[in-house]
Amino acid sequence: MLKLQNVQTFYGNIQALKDVTIQISEGEIVSLIGSNGAGKSTTLMAICGIVPPRSGEILFMGQPITHMEPDRIVSLGICQVPEGRRIFPHLSVLENLDMGAFLRKDRSQIKRDMEYLFELFPLLAQRRHQAGGTLSGGEQQMLAISRALMARPKLLLLDEPSLGLAPLIVKRTFEIVRKINTENKTTIFLVEQNANLALKVAARGYVMENGRITLTDSSENLLANEGVKKAYLGF
Amino acid sequence: MITFGQIKKAVLVSIWFMFLTFPIMVIRVNPVEHIVEWRWKNMLLVGVGSFILSFVWHYFIRRKELGAQKAELGEWAEAIPLAQRIRSKKTLYKPALVAAGIFALAFPFIFSLYQTNIMASALIYVMLGLGLNIVVGLAGLLDLGYVAFYAVGAYAYALLNYHFGLSFWMVLPIGAALGATFGILLGFPVLRLRGDYLAIVTLGFGEIIRIILENWNEFSFGPSGIANIPRPSLFGIDLSVHNATIYIYYIMIGLCLLTIFVVNRLQDSRIGRAWIALREDETACQAMGIDKTKTKLTAFALGAMWAGMSGVVFAAKTTFVNPASFTIWESIIILCIVVLGGMGSILGVIAGALVLILMPEYLRALSEFRMLAFGILLVVMMVFRPGGLIPNVRRTYKFEGVANDEKS
Ligand SMILES: Nc1ncnc2c1ncn2[C@@H]1O[C@H](COP(=O)(O)OP(=O)(O)O)[C@@H](O)[C@H]1O
Ligand SMILES: [Mg+2]
User: Which positions in chain B touch A149 (Cβ < 8 Å)?
Assistant: First the structure.
């Protein structure tokens, strides 16, 4: 479904991604783990076209999207939940959701999708008129995921959904991620520093170090891998 | 209530001011008699004056802080300004609106022609303020060259009438279209800029337009401008100066209503929300598939359009245009209207325009101190009401409980 081929990305003269090759099939949950500054967020930004690669190729459902504008890429069915949630603080919950559906015109379907999300997250339904900035961290994460789902993505990119959340909320978030994957058949690319959790949800994983993919295997094998254990699982 | 600490603070402030103003207020060199005069009396005045001012200033700051504490404790009614309380109550809002409407319609018959004329000018600024409010208040793009679009509209009417004899009503939509076109032209090069950089580049753009108008004699008749621009005619009938003034007043009322209607609709539309979203977080917007370029250009175009239209009315009203009417100072006044009134708030911008344009007219006696008063007003406002005269409702968070109150 998604294929990154030798992607290289730069910030000015600093190379953030070196020869990154990743492949994701339809219906999968794949995780990308790595320490702070490894280039995980940059990988997602490259896929979304916000920080386009200098060389290499990105294919989505067989179509090259390497140098497409971000809005075109979203319209093809890729949506990102950015790191740190980044919801719009002065817009209400409903308005935040509507921004997720920015490229869609089907009013009645949008309404139905909102109702579905409010069923999924009853807390958001209670706060639908409240400004996004007044929500708690956990609620903001739910809103950020809902907002991305409003775009009806075929591929959902999640950037560190566990960041700064209480363990119980993190657990709920990952349950939701799994639910979205099974119920809506949404493919999920999950970026995490919390390798332990990510590898439990995902079937496969990639390990990134200093902008390079150093390892890829099934989650089981990664969890058993000595190097991964030492670097990311804290054993 | 008055503590020793407060007095000490005020004394320190007054000493500091006496020290600061010492060279200009106390020392005077008399070059004729070759002596230095020491005006100690001035020093005393400065000292006492700044002592009192500092005391009053701190008193109000304390009151404001107390107010903020109360608001945090949940006493919302105190914190919500009067205008908004009227707005949120249907039983008060409707009659207030009707009263304002009747007053506006009856204005030329109650007051003199002079007053009507001034009011029409103020309404032009209401329209300009509402237009700039789209760019600055909603989209968060600091535009210091807004007057350029105003000039485009004014010169569009002056020149199209001079060369082709086009009438006011024909040029009005053309002025709007030209304004929007210039908005896009300015928008393209500044798309990547934000904040300070954007402000400087737009400021430059405004000056470029003015300088072109001043120096391109063959095109715009240079600094001497264009005179004898016809006032608008009513169904082809030319009106006397008296009637034309009243007519222009009503045209402005109509145009302002149109602006309010459109801006109100825009605010609640998807593009309006996208402007707010873009102001808050560009990257998140891109991740949602909001086209940054298109959204910003729309804001520039829709904002400039109103300036173009008000420029046409301005030319018809004064029957004379020259580049001196479109200096950077105009841009700053319009920006002050938006900031002082309340960014993003329609009612606020209207209030801001009326205060800032009408006050100097009625305080002509104090015209020497106009700039000083203007500066003081801005500083005081920004300290005590940073949201503006009538802040945008969006800023006050809406809780479920409040929404229920409205329904009942
Ligand atoms: N906007 C930026 N400008 C310059 N360098 C950046 C920018 N964003 C990230 N980087 C650099 O790129 C590298 C990868 O960052 P990032 O992708 O955010 O890592 P991660 O998400 O894995 O923590 C880091 O060295 C970081 O300093
Ligand atoms: Mg990151």
Answer: none
Are the Cβ atoms of A88 and B397 closer than 8 angstroms? no
Residue A207 near residue A222 (C-beta atoms within 8 A): yes
Who wins on pLDDT, A183 or B236?
A183
Residues 78-97 of A with CB under 8 A from B: 79-82, 86-92, 95
- Overall CATH class of domain B111-384: mainly alpha
Name every protein residue with a CB atom under 6 angstroms from any ligand 1 atom: A 11, 14, 16, 34, 36-42
Q: Which two tokens stand for residue B266?
A: 């825009």
Which residue numbers of B have CB closer than 8 Å to A's CBs?
Answer: 270, 273-274, 276-277, 280-281, 283-291, 394-395, 397-400, 403
| Enclosing H/E stretch for A189 | strand A187-192
Asked if A78 and A157 touch (Cβ cutoff 8 Å), the reply is yes
Given a cut of 90, whether residue A16 has pLDDT beyond it is yes
Mean pLDDT of B292-296: 92
Strands A29-34 and A14-24: unpaired
CATH number of the domain enclosing A88: 3.40.50.300
pLDDT, one tens digit per residue, over B213-223 is: 999 988 888 88
Q: Could you tell me the residue range of the domain that residue A167 belongs to?
A: 2-232
Q: Which of A70-84, B38-52, B241-255 has the lowest mean pLDDT?
A: B38-52
Q: What's the pLDDT band for B87 if we cut at 50, 70, 90?
A: low
Say which residue the tokens 């602006």 belong to.
B259
pTM, two decimal places: 0.82
Number of folded domains that form chain A: 1
